[in-house]
Amino acid sequence: TNEWHVISTPMDGLEMGPFAQNNNFDVWTTEEGGDGSFDFAPYDEANDEWGPFDVFPGTTTIIQPGIGYIARLNSPTEFDFAGNSIFTGTLDLTLNSTNFGWNAVGNPYTSGISANVLASPSVLSVNAESLAADFYAVYMWDASINDYYIINLGGKEQRIPVCQGFLVKANADGVPFQFTNGMQAHSNTTNIKSAEIPPSEIKLFVQAGDHRNSTRINFLEASSLGFEKGYDVGKLKGNDHIALYSRIVDNSRKIDLGVQSLPDVSYSTLSIPIGLDLPAGGETVFSLETVGFP
Q1: Cβ pair 138, 150 in contact under 8 A
Q2: Is the dihedral angle over the CA atoms 109, 111, 112, 115 positive or is it negative?
Q3: How do residues 272-281 score in pLDDT, each as one tens digit?
Q4: What is the mean pLDDT of the chain?
Q5: Which residues contact 176 (CB under 8 A, 6 or more apart)?
Q6: Residue-wise pLDDT tens digits, 228-254
Q7: Higher confidence at residue 71 or residue 32?
Q8: pLDDT (tens digit, 9 = 90+) per residue, 170-191?
Q9: Per DSSP, which regions of 117-239 are E strands?
């Protein structure tokens, strides 16, 4: 309730206004200084923000399968997708990069899809030539930390649930982006799940007042101390109040990383640069979780 979700639809023919009304989306009321529009919008790549928020009960604009939209519910409910037909087949989209390059897309199928496997069709393998090298990953909104969760290469397969939207960054304007039937991963659950034993990992957290953020360090057998596309992944800073990140250990690339992958030997002697954006300042508390360490 009252949390933002990034969603997509597997249905053709859904109109934005009736869909928002039927699903009890939150409304920006006149009492709040708003115009009565729903909290429901696509992503504006040129301005690097969600919007415009111009959906009203009578808005007949069609929700496009494969496109991601942000929405906020007014009360607990399940999304009701009632359209003309279920989308099937291959979906070809075009990504924009007129300014910032971020595009909101979403799972167009009625099953989960593979996100990050290179040996078979997945979001990252099929679209490798279209995504920015420094941000070669899937970015899913995580309402629990008010920021984006990163799915990158390495260690374990992760799946994108039904009706889940996400962000990707184009490497040029007008590049193709494709969803294929081969990406579909049928299972008994739509939650992101691990199909393999996860790699050793450090999750570093920071808490500053009500604001919380995190970054991840993976330890993989074949990794190096330098930049590796898809394994070292830039941070999309979705929280204006706080952002925690790391930097490449060998200093060969200047980028704030949401996930960094390092060799799984001699990790006890590594010095990993960590950065924190905290515009308001104040007291901070750091903590960490480890996975797969002896």
Answers
A1: yes
A2: negative
A3: 999 999 999 9
A4: 91
A5: 92, 93, 94, 95, 127, 130
A6: 999 999 999 999 999 999 999 999 999
A7: 71
A8: 999 999 999 999 999 865 444 4
A9: 138-142, 147-151, 159-160, 165-169, 175-179, 184-185, 200-208, 211-220, 233-234
Dihedral (Cα; 150, 152, 158, 163), 10-degree rounding: 50
Q: Which residues on adjacent β-strands are paired with residue 273?
A: none
Q: What are phi and psi of 183, to 5 degrees?
A: -75, -20
Question: Token pair for residue 48?
Answer: 């690097």
Compute the distance between CA of residue 135 and CA of residue 145 in angstroms, rounded to an integer. Answer: 20
Helix (H, G, I), strand (E, B) or coil at 202: strand
Query: Tokens 């990406």 label which residue?
Result: 183
**What whole-number distance in Å separates Cα of residue 20 and Cα of residue 250?**
49
Q: Which residues of 165-183 are buried (b: 16+ CB within 10 A; e: fewer)?
A: bbbbbbbeeebebebbeeb
Q: Are 103 and 170 in contact (CB under 8 A)?
A: yes
In the chain, the N- to C-terminal Cα span, in Å, equals 40
